Amino acid sequence: MYPTAAARTEKALRERIAQKHPELHRSETRARADIQQAQQAQTARIEQQNLRYEPPARRGRRSRAAPVPFGGSVP
Q: For 25, which of 18, 33, 56, 60 could close a Cys bridge (C-beta 3.0–4.6 Å)?
């Protein structure tokens, strides 16, 4: 799959920033990695919570009285 024009432009800009401003590039790269790591940890926690969830046990059906028709009487 070939990168889109926007992706190529962003890659070129990142390379230029890395060359002209190496400290800025390092801090941006570090921040992106930290965000990705936090998102992965959150996803793992959510998956673990979903594995532990058990819905409540289903009870037997209870019979309900039939509704009384409006304005009518029960025979």
A: 18
